């Protein structure tokens, strides 16, 4: 015993020590397995014997661990993104801890994808201009690399030039940029090395999610002799709320003789986003190579072979109405008509595009259609060769939101607890069904009549009702509620949808609640049920009974007095004689109880079951 006490004294006297240090790779490939070692500022034989060491990892899996090291397999992200992982460790004897952040690199190699329809006018096109050498520096924020006016640029720098001839011996001598017919046109030339960075970044505005977009560029590998690894780049798109899409890593293979190569990817713009940042990123992982040229960046919509719109002009792919409505439908060809004898058929879908129905009589480029009932309806235009209907093209979809504003009828229960005036708050429950999730709206409220209301144009609003008279005696009959009828009308301020619903204010003048202190559930018809008398005067109140172990063996929310009555059983089994606790959650008037504690606004007490 003396030795045990001495050991406990020694352990309790250990000081709280400084944090440790974790050694290991901090920039790793996703999916790789890495081992990390912790160096503790202080470690003794007592730590070996008594310390509990806990390792935790984020974006990885612990394969093995002990008091001095851990082996981690780092996660592979599903969206081609890098992840910032972390590993931390803590020992509970001296209170030492350590942590390390680990950048995990996703090297998934993607494939370029391009518009298979009609590539529309570019929302932004960057050809870097033209002129004599060297070209000017890029605008601030357009790249993370340093500007170097020399043709033989230094590592992690760029220049704008119209020729790479005689710049460096291992490089291709590129005599002109990619832009067709561009005299003395510049291209971006980068010695990117292995340092992560952004080749080019810019902002694109005025976009619409009606179409997919192509983000592309013409690039070339400067390596003339196959001496170095191929450059690795990535296209990324970022919106106001963060990352949207990426191409994954794209390799720029060497070519001999030099050839410009188009790389890029397709992506969908999220609903409600009209402005994005587009970025070309360096993804090379080696200090050797990664010398490349870039020209003619483009960000353009990919039109379907035939375009549908709700307006005869700019493409409008969303329309709105209330309860019912009609829309005009317009189709147009973005380029040449591929059919000798084109035929047309407008279609609509009531189920989000899972099935499509022909719109009767809508067989021309311009048409219209009515929707008699609320719902979210989609439209599209199908075109085909009249002599061979199997040859067909389908347009982009349009969405028609036929909205409905619903105001739920409600009964609001208010109580005159001691015979005085009745005060309460009234909140209308309403919703705009089949609403456009992109559109943010507000609502106008109107209660009618305005009698007794503090403000008839808000929800919730306050109400002050006059007294119904003195409270009835506990042993008297219940007093019927006085009903005050209101109509609340709600209007959507954006599209003007309106809905109304009746609101009933039930003003109660309730009796006080009396809770017996004993009952005898012996089946003789006398005092067989335990119930809080008059609790049914308070609709929505809840009643609970607990046994000596705190287990709830009965609960009820009414609404009748019989519903609130306990027969002395639990799960059909009669309970033994003794004391049981009860609790009431009253809907209002927490003090309106003759016996029981009301300190926490939830009356409670005990009852004795006698058999």
From TrEMBL:
The keyword Signal applies. InterPro entries: T9SS_type_B. The lineage of its organism: Bacteria, Pseudomonadati, Myxococcota, Myxococcia, Myxococcales. Gene3D superfamilies: Galactose-binding domain-like. This is Gliding motility-associated C-terminal domain-containing protein. Residues 1-18 form the signal peptide. Keywords: Signal.
């Amino acid at each position: 015993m003396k030795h045990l006490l001495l050991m406990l004294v020694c352990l309790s006297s250990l000081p709280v020590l400084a944090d440790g240090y974790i050694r290991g790779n901090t920039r790793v490939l996703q999916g790789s397995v890495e081992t990390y070692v912790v160096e503790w500022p202080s470690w003794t034989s007592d730590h070996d014997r008594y310390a509990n060491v806990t390792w935790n990892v984020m974006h990885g899996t612990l394969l093995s661990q002990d008091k001095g090291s851990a082996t981690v397999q780092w996660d592979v992200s599903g969206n081609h993104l890098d992840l910032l992982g972390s590993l931390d460790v803590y020992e509970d004897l001296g209170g030492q801890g350590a942590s390390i952040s680990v950048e995990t690199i996703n090297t998934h190699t993607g494939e370029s994808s391009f518009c298979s329809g009609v590539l529309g006018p570019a929302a932004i096109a960057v050809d870097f201009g033209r002129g004599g050498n060297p070209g000017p520096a890029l605008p601030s924020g357009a790249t993370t690399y340093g500007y170097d006016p020399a043709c033989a640029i230094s590592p992690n720098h760029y220049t704008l030039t119209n020729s790479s001839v005689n710049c460096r011996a291992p490089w291709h001598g590129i005599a002109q940029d990619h832009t067709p017919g561009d005299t003395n046109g510049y291209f971006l030339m980068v010695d990117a090395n292995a340092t992560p960075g952004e080749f080019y970044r810019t902002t694109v505005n005025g976009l619409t999610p009606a179409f997919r977009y192509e983000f592309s560029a013409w690039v070339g590998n400067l390596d003339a002799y196959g001496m170095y690894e191929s450059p690795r780049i990535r296209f990324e798109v970022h919106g106001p709320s963060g990352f949207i899409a990426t191409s994954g890593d794209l390799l720029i293979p060497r070519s001999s003789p030099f050839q410009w190569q188009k790389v890029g990817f397709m992506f969908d713009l999220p609903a409600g986003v009209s402005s994005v940042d587009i970025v070309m990123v360096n993804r090379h992982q080696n200090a050797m190579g990664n010398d490349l040229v870039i020209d003619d960046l483009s960000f353009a919509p990919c039109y379907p072979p035939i375009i549908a719109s709700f307006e005869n002009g700019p493409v409008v792919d969303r329309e709105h109405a209330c309860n019912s409505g009609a829309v005009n439908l317009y189709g147009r060809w973005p380029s040449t008509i591929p059919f000798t004898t084109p035929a047309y058929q407008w279609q609509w879908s009531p189920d989000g595009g899972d099935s499509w129905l022909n719109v009767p009589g809508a067989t021309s480029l311009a048409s219209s259609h009515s929707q008699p009932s609320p719902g979210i309806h989609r439209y599209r235009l199908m075109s085909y060769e009249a002599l061979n209907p199997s040859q067909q093209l389908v347009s982009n979809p349009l969405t028609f939101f036929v909205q409905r504003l619903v105001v739920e009828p409600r009964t609001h229960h208010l109580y005159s607890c001691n015979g005085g005036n009745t005060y309460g708050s009234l909140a209308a429950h309403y919703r705009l069904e089949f609403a456009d999730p992109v559109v943010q709206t507000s609502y106008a409220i109107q209660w009618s009549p305005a009698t007794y209301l503090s403000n008839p144009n808000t929800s919730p609003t306050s109400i002050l009702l006059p007294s119904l008279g003195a409270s009835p005696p506990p042993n008297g009959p219940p007093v019927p509620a006085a009903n005050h009828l209101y109509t609340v009308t709600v209007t959507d301020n954006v599209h003007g949808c309106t809905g109304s619903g009746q609101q009933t204010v039930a003003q109660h003048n309730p009796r006080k609640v009396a809770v017996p202190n004993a009952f005898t559930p012996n089946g003789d018809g006398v005092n067989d049920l335990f119930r809080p008398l008059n609790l049914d005067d308070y609709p929505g109140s809840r009643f609970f009974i607990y046994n000596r172990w705190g287990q709830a063996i009965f609960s009820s929310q009414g609404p009748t007095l019989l519903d609130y009555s306990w027969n002395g059983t639990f799960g059909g089994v009669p309970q033994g004689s003794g004391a049981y606790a009860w609790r009431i959650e009253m809907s209002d008037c927490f003090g309106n109880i003759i016996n029981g504690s009301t300190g926490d606004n939830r009356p409670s007490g005990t009852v004795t079951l006698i058999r």
